[in-house]
């Protein structure tokens, strides 16, 4: 015969597993946001450094060559060629940075960011497709760390003998006591992660289809 206490402790163990998985999903979401902020800051810093380096290197190098040449002779054809070549290189350098260099740096950083984010997404994918998140026993609106902690509190304080009773009692409190509807989190972390992963997968499929179309056109040509 199954005892109520046995069921309760089984439900407690399940809730703790669920809480751990949801907290990990929440951490993944925060890590992803911090990662994006980190790469944006790195992009800004490196962009400034590359810009200054690109702008300053040619003039300084030109001045160095000009100074060395002036030590050997007065201003003449050689010095004029150095100044002209330096000015031309400076202009080409500015144009390269404006139309190519900045975009290449941004692309490099974007690739690095996507690689790091992909690792986080893979971890979230494993969490959402395995137990206890694959087939949760809680309604969708309660799949947040805050709500699961409340249910654990009902079970721990002996207010409820099993999971369904704990959910029922919490719903009563949400409707009739100090715990009102405002206590429900606006965003459910599991739903948010699932939507984000599905959107990413959809974008990847579109990219693959676009690439296939481009390759097919090339073959036909």
Order of helices and strands: HHHHH
Rg estimate, integer Å: 31 Å
| Structural class designation | mainly alpha
Work out the strand percent.
under 5%
Separation of termini? 75 Å
Summarize the main sheet: none
- What's the oligomerization state? single chain
Which range best describes the helical content: under 10%, 10-25%, 25-40%, 40-55%, 55-70% or over 70%? Answer: over 70%
Shape: rod-shaped
How many helices? The count is 5
Describe the model.
The protein is an all-alpha fold. The chain is built from 5 helices and no strands. It has helices at 4-72, 77-128, 145-156, 163-176, 189-220. α1 (4-72) runs antiparallel to α3 (145-156), α2 (77-128) crosses α5 (189-220) and α3 (145-156) crosses α4 (163-176). It is rod-shaped and about 100 Å long. The termini are far apart. The model has no long low-confidence stretch (mean pLDDT 79).
